[in-house]
Structures are given as C-alpha cells and as structure tokens.
Amino acid sequence: MGRIGDWLREWHFKKFLNSTSNGWLLFQEGKDYSLKELAFDEDLGAYFVEDEDGEPLYFEDENGRMGNLEGKPLGLASSQGRPIVSVEDAEHATAFDDKRSDIPPLQDDDHISIGQVRESLQVARIERDAGPDVEVINPFFDRAEQAEIVDLRPTFQLFRRSARPDTPRKAAKNAVEAERAKSGPDLGQIGFVGTIFGAFLLGAITVEFIAGGGGGGGVSLPVMLDVFSML
Amino acid sequence: MQEPQINPTQEYVDSILASDLREHDKTPEEIRNITAPEFALANFKSADREYFRLHFENIALLSEERYPPKYARLREETIGAAMYEDSGYDVEDTDQLRDNLREIGLHVSHAETSRSVDGWQQDKFSESITTNRVEDARVEEEESRGLGRYL
C-alpha cells in the first residue's frame, strides 16, 4: 500500500495543482502561511489573490521570480510588499543583514591592496555623479570557495519602491468612484433647486393659510402645483 | 489727490492663497502640487470637487510608494546607489513627519477646492474690486467738491 499510497498522494497533489491555470502563491501574513490560487489581471498586468474578505491583493513578477512546482508556477509573497520573491531572495536579504553587523572595522595597520579587493571581492562598480564611486564587493565571499560570489543587486531591486498589495485595488476603487461622481447629478445644483422649491412651497402654504383664514376659499393646492410646474 | 488703489493687489491675493504646507521643506512634491493655488481659483461643480478629491487620494498613494520600504537599509545613500545601480541615487528621508504632512495635504487640498465651487473665490475677488472702485470714486467726488463738502 505504500507505493500505491504514494502514487495516490502524488496524483491528488498534481490534480490539486492543475486545478488552476495561473499558478499558486505561497502567501505569508505575519506567522501564517497560506497557498492561494493566482489569477491574472490583464488590465494591470499583475497577479492577484483574494484576501479573507474577498478583496483582491495584487502582486507583480516583473523580475521573473516565479518558480515552478510540478509544472505549475509558484511564487512567494507577503502582505507587506507587491513583488513576488523567491527563497534565494530571502537568503540574500537575511545574509546581507547579518553581514553588515559582522564586518569588523579595518585597523590602521591592515594590509590589503585595492587591486586585491577588486580582484577577489568586487562584483560591480557604480560611478556616481557626486562623491566617490561605489565599489560593490561581495559580503558572502569565502576564501575557501572563491566561486561562490552572490550578486545582491537583483534581490534588492525588487524592493526599490514601497509597494503594498492592496494599493492597486484602492486606487482603482477611487478612480471608479471619481468617474461615478463626475457623471452623476450635481448634488450642489440639486440642493439649490430643492431650496427654491422648499421656499416656494412654504410661501404657498403661508398664503393659503392667511387667505383661507380670512374669507374662506383661497387658492387650492392643485392650482399652486400647476403654477410651480410652469416655472 | 489720492491714487486709486488697484484691488485686489497681488499681495492681497498671495496672502489669501498662501499655504504654510507648501512652504514646509518636508512636504512631498506631489502634495505641494495638489495644494497649488490654481485649485482655489478654478470653477468647479460639487461633482468635480469630489472627482479631484478621489484622484488626489491616489496621488498620495503613489507618493508614498515612490520610496523604498520604511526601515529598509536601502534608504542609505551608498547602499541604495550600489544596489539600484543608480549613480544619482538620493532617497529623501521619509520620516513620520513627511507621512503626516502627506495626510494633512489631502485635507488642505479639499479645503482649498471648496473655494472654487461655482467660482466662489473669483467672485469674492471681483466683489472686492467693485467695492474698492465705488469707494475710490466716492473719495474722488468728495475731494472735488472742495468746501462744498461741508454744506
């Protein structure tokens, strides 16, 4: 039953994965993970999933971080950002954070040439308009394994902007409501006409009261409404 | 003879339309633009005002997302220049005050556009011109009467 059970589990798992065409998103919110079905918004050019309230949360994969799980696209994202990331990005970011605190300050009598630094550690050089150029060196460098050089730039370019998953939904909602406000009736004008109508009606009732109390008769209400309709 | 005063003067208009928010050095550029005096001098309907209010909210969202995430090391100029391969990288220091000014700017913008409903602010300036011209004419007439003004 073991091999049959494994086959059945794998069959069910692939059936589950294939139940959607756009892929899946491993979504982290705080300490909670969930596997959400991805949909794609053609107008925005972004993926989206639904949150607990059924509202869309948008995610972008402009840097091509979507992976592959049994032939189905799989991405990683959190509630704090719109970019879809990968486990490697998380490793780079974590290791970078650790490295920054581990770098000991250079001592005055340390000997290391610029050429050695560039040869062994440099991954890029950024020429700046103002100030000295920036030499990007690899904080992961291990002398025993010189081939392991990791370029951090693709990971950090994912987070160039503070992009929240719910921002496109809020912006779209505002835009729709704005168009609805502009195409609908002008409430200011309606209020103005309403004020005029109310004042006329009050005056007509007052006249009716005074005239009716003086000698009986007076202007009947249907006549008043006909007069108003002529305005 | 008293020189007729041209009202409203440029100083008067500037003082009416002045905004401390636009002068604050931590106000985001987008917020300065949506609180520009042009919006107080327009001719809006109520529906137009609501239209701009909602779109200004979107501008504030985009303004907030211009910069790297808060508390990110990428806000350091050297690291940002290296990681984004941007030789001119210069992220503005987005502290809480700037975020607060962004929120305040939306309210200021909404208040300023209230002046432009049905051209209210322009009408007020026109009334000021008319009132001052009548007063100037009255002053000129009294001066021209000489001693007759005491009769």
Descriptive keywords:
heterodimer; A: 231 residues; alpha+beta; 4-stranded mixed sheet; 3-stranded antiparallel sheet; flat; B: 151 residues; mainly alpha; 7 helices; elongated
Based on DSSP secondary structure assignment, what is the total number of beta strands of chain A?
Answer: 9
How would you characterize the largest beta sheet of chain B? Answer: none
The largest sheet of chain A is:
4 strands, mixed
Cα(first) to Cα(last) distance of chain A is: 89 Å
Secondary structure class of chain A reads: alpha+beta
Count up the helices of chain B. 7
Radius of gyration of chain B, in angstroms, nearest whole number: 24 Å
SSE string of chain B, helices as H and strands as E: HHHHHHH
Strand order of the largest sheet of chain A: 2-1-7-6
Shape assignment of chain B: elongated
Structural class of chain B: mainly alpha
Description:
The complex is a heterodimer of chains A (231) and B (151). Chain A has helices at 2-17, 87-102, 114-120, 153-156, 167-183, 187-215, 221-229; strands spanning 24-29, 32-37, 39-41, 46-50, 56-59, 67-69, 72-78, 122-126, 134-137. Chain A is of the alpha+beta class and 231 residues long. Chain A has a four-stranded mixed sheet, with no helix packed on it. Chain A has a three-stranded antiparallel sheet with strand order 3-4-5. In chain A, strand 1 and strand 2 (32-37) form a beta hairpin. With 151 residues, chain B is mainly α. Chain B has seven helices and no strands. Chain B has helices at 10-17, 20-23, 29-34, 46-64, 77-83, 96-113, 120-144. The longest helix of chain B is centred in the last third of the chain and has 25 residues, at 120-144. Classes of the chains: A alpha+beta (231), B mainly alpha (151). The A-B interface holds A 80-81, 96-97, 100, 124, 126-130, 134, 136, 152-153, 156-157, 159-164, 167, 170-171, 174-175, 177-179, 181-182, 184-189 and B 45-48, 50-52, 54-55, 57-58, 61-62, 64-70, 72-74, 78, 81-88, 117-118.
